[in-house]
């Protein structure tokens, strides 16, 4: 009998063998990844981070099949859910209510860039109304222009 693997295009069953728990204030953040460099960098960043972002769990999957290219940052937000896209291959979804991040990382995004996205750009979107913003990779989070998308919610 042959074993047939079920396709997993959403990477739901991708193992994340690199798991770290980091104390921030009185709470712990759990970092899970299938990429050791990502897990170690985020662990180091969480340990050194002065301002607490308040993330309880980060699950980050390095997707080696994802498209490369980091050109445009796009931030979408509605209530507690925020999604950050970097080019077409990287997507981070932050649930402020559950304080969890799940992300799919393109092969050309390094761990330091990922830490910047998680600890600089995502917190800048907190408590904003439904927004969309696009910036060039060289722009900083302070220059993000938020545009209300109320017309799209009806």
How would you summarize the topology of this molecule?
Elements: E1 18-24, E2 27-33, H1 36-48, E3 57-62, E4 72-78, E5 81-86, E6 90-95, E7 100-105, H2 111-124, E8 131-136, E9 147-148
Parallel strand pairs: 2-3, 3-7
Antiparallel strand pairs: 1-2, 4-5, 4-8, 5-6, 6-7, 8-9
Give your account of this protein's structure.
The chain is α+β, with helices and mostly antiparallel strands. It has one domain. The chain is 18% helix and 34% strand. Strands 1-2-3-7-6-5-4-8-9 form a 9-stranded mixed beta sheet, with helices on one face. Helix 1 (36-48) crosses helix 2 (111-124). The radius of gyration is 16 Å and the shape is globular. Residues 129-154 have low confidence and may be disordered.
- Biggest pleated-sheet summary: 9 strands, mixed
The number of strands is: 9
Number of helices: 2
Q: What coarse outline follows from CA principal-axis ratios?
A: globular
Domains (count) = 1
Radius of gyration over C-alpha positions, nearest whole angstrom: 16 Å
Distance between the termini: 52 Å
Multimerization status: single chain
Helix content: 10-25%
- Percent of residues in beta strands: 25-35%
Mean of pLDDT: 75
Order of helices and strands: EEHEEEEEHEE
Strand order of the largest sheet: 1-2-3-7-6-5-4-8-9
